[in-house]
Amino acid sequence: MEMVSLAQELSATTYPGRGIVIGRSEDGKKAVTAYFIMGRSENSRNRVFVEDGEGIRTQAYDPSKLEDPSLIIYAPVRVLGNKTIVTNGDQTDTIYELMDKQQTFEQALRTREFEPDAPNYTPRISGIMHIENGKYSYAMSILKSNNGNGAACNRYTFAYENPLAGEGRFIHTYMRDDNPLPSFEGEPTWVKISGDIDSFTEMVWNNLNEDNKVSLFVRYIDIETGKYETRIVNKNK
After folding, report:
1. Total domains, the chain
2. Is residue 1 part of a domain?
3. Which element (helix H / strand E) includes 57?
């Protein structure tokens, strides 16, 4: 596998769907994550990210236009002690609640599967960042249908210990804009992480398709202190 440009990966398709990036800053001092959502329908586009405690949640931009909230209103980011959970659905709550009861990331996700939105069967993608005593590791997961067959769920977890400076992994829900939407394939893409939080946020946002992008969350966490900075960008203002 070769490290690729995150900007090129983001701009390679008009509809990667929802995506998670996790890695380490160029100077090695920060744990980095980004989560974005996109939408093709009016219901999906009618959203913003808002802060919710140490995490965020999605919210209808215009409540009068909200139709089915079941798969679009959720908390993508929650913090449990020294762990930051980032997902594309309400499995954030599942991970938070079961890890709080001493279960593992994988055990928590065993209770869930891909989204019930046939024929797409949108994958559930999740990430968890663990920072403790100056050490940093993370894991990513994808739960997806068996090549478009909703009768079976394929489960994959990828764990990264002591991630290197300037490197990250990128996983997203769809390979390309098609009908039905084809699920992400392979292991998370190895990407370069560069710049401070503002330049990184700008790069990610500017390389998402202008028509389909909806919201972006970025967080840089100091690996020594645990203190963090957050940026939120919403197309709806």
Report:
1. 1
2. no
3. strand 55-60
Note the pLDDT tens digit of each residue in 17-28: 999 999 999 999
Whether 59 is in a domain gets the answer yes
- In angstroms, the Cα distances linking 184 to 117, 138, 175 are 16, 20, 5
Q: What is the mean pLDDT of residues 102-109?
A: 98
Q: What's the CATH code of the domain at 122?
A: 3.60.20.20
Name the residue range of residue 226's domain. 6-234
Of 103, 126, 101, 104, nearest to 113 (Cα)? Answer: 126
What DSSP string runs through 58-87? EEESSGGG----TTTSS-SEEEETTEEEEE
Tokens of 104: 């593992």
Residues contacting 61, CB < 8 A, separation 6+: 46, 47, 48, 234, 236
Total residues belonging to the chain? 237
User: Tens of pLDDT along 129-167?
Assistant: 999 999 999 999 999 999 999 999 999 999 999 999 999
